[in-house]
Specification:
The complex is a heterodimer of chains A (74) and B (133). With 74 residues, chain A is of the alpha+beta class. Chain A is built from two helices and three strands. In chain A, strands 1-2-3 form a three-stranded mixed β-sheet. In chain B, α2 links the parallel β1 and β2. The chains are: A alpha+beta (74), B alpha+beta (133). The interface between A and B is medium-sized, with 14 and 15 residues.
Amino acid sequence: MATAAEVKQRIEDGIDGASADVKSDDDVHFSARVVSPAFDGLSLVEQHRLVYSLFGEGELGGEIHALSLTTETP
Amino acid sequence: MSEQPDSSLRDQIAAAIRDNDVILFMKGTPEQPMCGFSARTAAALQSLPVEFAAVDVLPDPRIRQELSSLSNWPTIPQLFVRGELVGGADIVAEMYESGQLAEVLGVEGGGGPAPAGEEPPGPAPIQIENRLG
């Protein structure tokens, strides 16, 4: 079980200068809006991969059933 | 973790991506999606004047494993256009709304709210989650 606060912490610790707004109603489906200068120059696919890479194999789709993602540069 | 990668299956997936200009890997089918994210992604494509191939990853869990290691993308759905991963449900929705999806596909359309898609039918998703453990 993860909480929105834990997911937020993981993203902000893992990506330089990131601020994440994470919501969850049930602690398995999450939606996150992540703003970081680290996304600059990356394609959307690369931006999302960067966030996904912070989660272990099988964690997305497993314990974290879904992580709906919006990524932006400041 | 100790399972051998299935190279022939991976080759088949790679060939499908190469041979189809637009291909969507999803849970269920466009007519009968088994997950809301797959449903919305298929609905976005169906609302554009484009033909696409759809592969249901549910019949064999190895499809999903091999696809994800091939594409370096952990979740389903996954949309490929001309061999390139365009993205999953969030990116496809975002690109649909901005009109970029139609642009990538080389067609007119899109822009505005993405179609919601049919919600998956009642008991089926529960069976599937049990089966995949």
